[in-house]
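Issue 218. Parser rejects a valid record. Input:
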Amino acid sequence: MVKHFLHITDFTADEIWETLNLAKELKVKFRQREDYKPFKNKSLAMIFAKPSARTRVSFETGFEWMGGHALFLGPNDIGIGKREEIKDISRLFSRFNDLMMARLFDHQHILELAEYSEIPVINGLTNYNHPCQIMADIFTIWEHREYLDDLKITYVGDGNNVVHSWIHLAERFPMKFICACPEGYEPNNEVVQRCNKVGLSSVEVLHDPVAAVKSADVVYTDVWASMGQKAEVEEREKAFKQFQVNEELMAATGKHTLFMHCLPAERGREVTDGVMESDASIVFDQAENRLHVQNSIMVTLAGGD
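Output the parser choked on:
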């Protein structure tokens, strides 16, 4: 039976740890440019309905380094869900390729892609969630803290796809997760309630960013208006005005707190330049780690060694 990675919860806690440990090994191999070719003579189809520099570069670079060939398929190449049926694309690519990665708008599209696929499908992002990002994030926190016990993450901003994947991770790893957002911009309530029902972690939604960041180990933010929300920029700027991660908010944690951002960052909006460039910022470590963790996910799903 083909295993996909569409949500963090597709992996058990043990499988997540195995993936993180493998990512640690692959990071060393990559940095030393070791000859490591589990994907020799294999191909990765990268389907992009929603463009991204980091996702394309990290997947393409990683797969090529591991001996395979990565094919970029942009919105004009396929027109997924419009020009051709998703189930037809999925079945065809299953005959051509060894893995598929898709970065899409509609989450139902990635579910259908996986349903009809005979090869592993990896979720590179949908409007609902962003599992590869959060796998890279927790790996980065582990690197910097060297442990994940008593972890408090405060996300400041829109309750978006990044937040949903953090909450999914909280179903597997114990933590205290707080989403500090303006009223009307909360994460999906079913996602929050399901995690709290599991009982492993505590998930809260607050509307006071100062109270939310108190004693946080990590303060995390993202753009206020994601791709597809640019028409709402002015409205969102007003709503999120008090939710900027600046030097004062970081100081309100009362401890040495790490700062994270999934990029691209709009400096001067959701975060100040000072915070981005501060000693607390591990933004570029987490960006690099997308490559290593995604390599690990691909090897794990494909049964490589």
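Fixed in the parser; the record now loads. The chain has a mean pLDDT of 96.
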